[in-house]
Amino acid sequence: NETLKNRSVLSLMEWSPAELQRVLYTARVMKKEPHSPAFRHALEGQHVALIFELPSTRTRVSFQVAVESLGAKAVVFEWNQSQLGRGEPIRDTARVLSRYVSGVVVRTREHETLQEWRKWADRPVFNALTNRMHPFQVLADVLTIWEKLGTVRGIKLAYFGDGNNMANSFLVLGAKLGMDVWIASPEGFQPAPDVVHWAHQEATLTGAGIHVTDDPQAAAQGADVVVTDVFQSMADDPELASTKKSLMAPYQVNTALMSLAKPTAIFLHCLPAHRGEEVSEAVLEGPQSVVFDEAENRLWVQKSVLYHVLADSSAVLGG
Ligand code: CP
Ligand code: NVA
């Protein structure tokens, strides 16, 4: 079954629930047997470029490790140290790189930049974060949920704070997998209206629940998974930072908010975290926090997706 083969990953909107499940299943197999010879040479002879317009720790390192653990080589470079930084058009860069490497992982400010890249590239393009979507992060998150709670369908996932790339991505993922997704954000900073609309439509097919509210308590009530992210994202207008900080203060995930969730609830954060802003020190470092298992899972889901998209002879697991 090779439906993901040679496909770009800009968001998870285009994936079927079965494709999502296959990627998660392979990720678990890879994690269980990290030295399995089944994957060590899967991408041998290939090169994958990793390009960053914005800073990164997890994405940069975990993608490089994922690429190299499949037998390929990673070519990592900064946007501004390439000719992109001097204005060479995306359409030229995308076509040139397609002659050298078998895929490109790109972190860029504007989602439209990545769409332009995909339009001109002859090779798959992987979204390493844009202002609109962060698909590999929510794949890692759902793997973590599956590992910790044993199930995904029907669970209540509550996200607090800025209606940013993470909030948009949870709407997409949750709608696909039949989760009960709650996004609690202040007016003016709620998720992208077209993504919310899309999620409602998708939910009619999957039985998901989609709720966007400005009421953090309602969202927290009985939640299985509590999530937050920074109030100010890398691609955001810096002039909005102080307004956002005061508007979003009531959405901080702290012990009081956590106490409304189920006692078995887990806490997720894509990191980096700002202690005392979107999350309290006590929650981030507390017993319900699984943020480092979550960070580890970036590696496994990326390895799985690279394998499904780029491996030549897909002796693909899971049928
Ligand atoms: N969570 C995440 O994407 O982290 P980095 O910005 O460090 O890659
Ligand atoms: N929403 C954050 C996520 C960082 C991994 C940002 O875009 O900066």
TrEMBL record:
It is found in: Cytoplasm. The keyword Cytoplasm applies. Residues 7-147 form the Aspartate/ornithine carbamoyltransferase carbamoyl-P binding domain. This is Ornithine carbamoyltransferase. One of its GO terms (cellular component) is cytoplasm. GO terms for biological process: citrulline biosynthetic process; L-arginine biosynthetic process via ornithine. It holds the Pfam family OTCace. Pathway: Amino-acid biosynthesis; L-arginine biosynthesis; L-arginine from L-ornithine and carbamoyl phosphate: step 1/3. It catalyses: carbamoyl phosphate + L-ornithine = L-citrulline + phosphate + H(+). The keyword Secreted does not apply. Its EC number is 2.1.3.3. It is an enzyme of class 2 (transferase). It comes from Sulfobacillus harzensis. Carbamoyl phosphate binds at S56, T57, R58, T59, Q83, R107, H134, P135, F136, Q137, C270, L271, R298. Belongs to the aspartate/ornithine carbamoyltransferase superfamily. OTCase family.
